[in-house]
Amino acid sequence: MTERIVVVGAALLDGGRLLAARRSAPPDLAGRWELPGGKVEPGERPEAALVRELREELGVDAEPVERIPGEWPLRDAYVLHVWTARLRPGSAAPAPLEDHDELRWLAPAEIWDVPWLDQDVPAVRETLTRLTAGRAH
C-alpha cells in the first residue's frame, strides 16, 4: 500500500468569517478557491506544518484550534486534513504570497459566492456548520 501524504488545510477564522484563497497555480486549479495550506514534511507534526504553511503562503502567525473530522482524497496518494485556525495577536494581515492571487474573508452568507476546489467543499461545509453554531472564534 502506498503511504499517504497528508496535506493540511487551514479554515482560518476571524470575527466569524472564513479566509478563502484563490489559486494562481497550477493552471488546472487557477481561479478556484481553497483553504490555504500544504504538504506535511517528513517528521513534521500536522499542526506544525499548518503554522509553517500559513507563514509561507500568507505571511501570518496563526495557531491551529481544532481538527475538523474527516479526510478527503486529493490527487494520487495525497489526503487532505483540515483544522480550524486563528491569527495570533499581533499577526500581520494575510497577504497572497505564494500560489494565490487573491484572498477574501467570507461571512457565513458569502461562503458559496466563490468556486471552491471540489476537495475543499466538505471541509468548508463542516467549517460553516461550526461558524453558524457559534463554536468557532
UniProtKB/TrEMBL annotation:
Keywords in alphabetical order: DNA damage, DNA repair, DNA replication, Hydrolase, Magnesium, Metal-binding, Mutator protein
Cofactor requirements of the protein: Mg(2+)
GO molecular function, one term: metal ion binding
GO biological process, one term: DNA repair
Catalytic activity: 8-oxo-dGTP + H2O = 8-oxo-dGMP + diphosphate + H(+)
EC number: 3.6.1.55
Domain of life where this protein originates: Bacteria
Domain Nudix hydrolase stretches: 3-128
Family, similarity comment: Belongs to the Nudix hydrolase family.
Family matches, as PANTHER family: 8-OXO-DGTP DIPHOSPHATASE, NUDIX HYDROLASE FAMILY PROTEIN
Name of the featured protein: 8-oxo-dGTP diphosphatase
Lineage: Bacteria, Bacillati, Actinomycetota, Actinomycetes, Kitasatosporales
